Amino acid sequence: MLTREQNDLLTASGPGTPIGRLFRSYWLPALLASELPENECPPVRVKLLSERLLAWRDTQGRYSLIDEFCAHRGTSLWVGRNEENGLRCPYHGWKYDWTGQCVEVPSEAEESGFCQKIKLKSYPLVKRGDVLWTYMGPAEQQPPLPEFEFATVPSNQSYISKRLQECNWLQALEGGIDSSHTSWLHRGDLERDPLHRGSKGNTYNLQDSRPYFEVVESPGGLMIGARRNAEGGKYYWRITQWIMPCVSMIAPRADHPAGGHFWIPIDDENCWVWNWDYHAARPLHQEEVEAMKNGGGRHVIYEPGNTFRAQANKDNDFLIDRAAQKAGLTYSGIAGFAMQDSGIQELMGPVVDRSKENLVSTDNGIIMARHRLMRAAKALLEKGARPPGADPEHQRVRAASIVLPPDQPFKDAASEELKVRPGLKHASV
Amino acid sequence: MLSESARMTTAAEARFRINAPNSQPRTIKVIALDAACADVVKQLAQARWNRATFLMASAFAAPARKDAPFSMSGWLSDLAGRTQDLVDEIEAADLVVMVSAAGENAAAASVIGEACRARKVMTTALILHSESKSDEALSKTLSFLRPYASMLVVANGEDYIESMLIALRA
């Protein structure tokens, strides 16, 4: 459990809040690069950390992320004309460049220099991999660009999607580091989903629904090992990496691509779930990409209209199928890994009240994650300490599934497998 | 028309959640397995807890004579140094938390862990690690604890124990 004050502290990410400041210490995924496909393309509205922003790409291909609203009368620049290295408000013609600097106020004499006095708040927007990343903190504390492996492999080796989730970021994140739910919530899908099936690890998972857990602090966050019995007295380990503040890397299965998530607050009641899959050693197969586009693995099918909202959503009761639930085809009645997680988490309410929960010892991954978030937020506020996870070295890690002898700490026995090894495939069972 | 799920997941609806206790207090025994953790546990015991009891695996502080008969009652003591019966303590527990420092001898975990297993009491082991301790030291302690803990945590700071116990409503 958390006290109400702790719950408020961890779930509020707007400007000026402790967790908001923490998030503003990192590069965060803001848009898919495909959302701004060409120079002078239409701008895109973006809300991040409770700030309304506008992303656009100018005549020279420079990416821009600025305050959504015109400084003159406050209309949305989403209706702006993207023209000649600037975005022009159609209301009275004020024009802004990619840094948010106003460069024209047609009603004022050019010689007055008035436009120089007008500048919209802006944040850097940088393409890395197929993602546009932003950093929303103080310029002098900007960390190096992100080094997550999925964003550094060639494009044909990765697939990235994002999905609107209509609840607070923390309850979504906590689902991602709660390994014990897999044997229940997802049990019907392990051998059916094209991006999971055929793995020996599935057998271990299904044979043992009460795994042992080990949680180990890492420089950038946590390693959460779930241990099940394998043959010959050995242990089958699934090791999840949590990188602060909101990244989880999921242990892969067989030769399927490895994946993970970001949970990025939109506001306090909504978040973006970013989903990536990549193979470190080969291009993704066409069948794999098709499966991801069709909602396989950690991805979803969207509702019509390019909203990034899943087709199964709370407006249609997540398309719950009680017959499939009764027959054991799905444990929750909701189809697909991603929607099973999302449905369960959204039904907790927009911000779950953790003062009422009853955690058990296997929830230590969640307890530790909260503890580290609060500790880092406090250190940042009181000492200005750069939080764990912002250092690229903390990001160059992998999740792993691996069979190990019984007497070895997974952290040591799998130390190489838990690091990025460019060009080499993941340790995966 | 909004679906039932859409209506029921609003912030406004959250106000109507039942505001009544949904659990009974759990009895948690926190046991320092080595001298290095004894002070940590004593310090923790100063805070206000619901039903947490703090104990030491005292056999290691005062080894039994070689010719003395084996007795489980010799394995635990309370903070005042009084011997406590291991079986009685375990039987009264919903959860046993064993605390050890990296590099220390956590052999007491075997007796405590076996007693918990026999009485189907959940166990959590917590290893306090620090940069000054080697990975080998950590491995040594981990090898003592792993067979007897359904949840094992390696924490880099003493403050985590308090957070964990609060989170578990100790």
How are the secondary structure elements laid out?
The complex is a heterodimer of chains A (429) and B (170).
Chain A: H1 4-11, H2 18-23, E1 27-32, E2 44-48, E3 51-57, E4 63-67, E5 81-83, E6 86-88, E7 95-96, E8 102-104, E9 122-123, E10 125-128, E11 131-135, E12 158-165, H3 169-176, H4 182-185, H5 200-207, E13 212-217, E14 221-229, E15 235-243, E16 247-250, E17 258-267, E18 270-278, H6 286-293, H7 322-326, H8 337-346, H9 364-383, H10 392-395, E19 400-404, H11 410-413
Antiparallel strand pairs in A: 1-11, 2-3, 3-4, 4-9, 5-6, 6-7, 7-8, 10-11, 12-18, 13-14, 14-15, 15-16, 15-19, 16-17, 17-18
Chain B: H1 4-8, H2 11-14, E1 28-32, H3 35-45, E2 52-56, E3 76-78, E4 83-84, H4 86-91, E5 95-101, H5 108-118, E6 122-128, H6 135-145, E7 151-155, H7 159-167
Parallel strand pairs in B: 1-2, 1-5, 5-6, 6-7
Antiparallel strand pairs in B: 2-3, 3-4
Give an overview of the whole structure.
The complex is a heterodimer of chains A (429) and B (170). With 429 residues, chain A is of the alpha+beta class. Chain A is built from 11 helices and 19 strands. Chain A has helices spanning 4-11, 18-23, 169-176, 182-185, 200-207, 286-293, 322-326, 337-346, 364-383, 392-395, 410-413; strands at 27-32, 44-48, 51-57, 63-67, 81-83, 86-88, 95-96, 102-104, 122-123, 125-128, 131-135, 158-165, 212-217, 221-229, 235-243, 247-250, 258-267, 270-278, 400-404. In chain A, the strands form 4 sheets. In chain A, strands 12, 13, 14, 15, 16, 17, 18 and 19 form an 8-stranded antiparallel β-sheet that branches. Chain A has a 4-stranded antiparallel β-sheet with strand order 2-3-4-9, with no helix packed on it. A 4-stranded antiparallel β-sheet of chain A has the order 5-6-7-8, with no helix packed on it. Chain A is globular and about 85 Å long. By secondary structure, chain B is α/β, with parallel strands linked by helices. In chain B, strands 4-3-2-1-5-6-7 form a 7-stranded mixed β-sheet, with helices on both faces. The radius of gyration of chain B is 20 Å and the shape is globular. Chain A binds chain B through residues 1-2, 166-167, 210, 212-217, 269, 314-318, 346-347, 349-351, 353, 356, 358-364, 367-368, 370-371, 375, 406-409, 411-412, and chain B through 2-6, 8-11, 13-14, 17, 22-23, 95, 122-124, 129, 135, 138-139, 142-143, 146, 149-157, 159-160, 163-164, 166-169.
